[in-house]
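Hi R.,

Here are the chain sequences for the assembly we discussed:
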Amino acid sequence: MVHRHKHALQMEEKRLNNVAAGLVSERFPTVSAIVIHMTYYRKAVIPLLMVRTVNMIPTTYAYFKMDCMVKGCSKGGFDLTPVVANMVKNGKKTCKGSIKCHGEIDTLPASHASIDYEAVIEYQGI
Ligand SMILES: [Zn+2]
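And here is the predicted structure of the full complex:
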């Protein structure tokens, strides 16, 4: 039951985050689509954790903070908000980079996880 309650709280937190972020169409009216390819790594013998693609359209919530996938990481994650905001500001279509997780985790050193990302943005009428 405790677990279920925690899950409900996390869902509610996610919903509030989404509402606060607003829709892609509200934040970035010139954007018609955003695709973010991400490769997740962790500090381990086999570092590749997973590969993930996020597709966003104008009616998607403009929430670009990705969770850290390492178990026990608290307040970590990868915030792509500044990346997307900068790309839109400059009318840039593609951007590659990497982000380290700065979350805290007792048993692991800092920068225990990172992602490589490639963001592709399509603009309306182009
Ligand atoms: Zn982390």
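The chain has three helices and six strands. The mean pLDDT is 91.

Let me know if anything looks off.

Best,
T.
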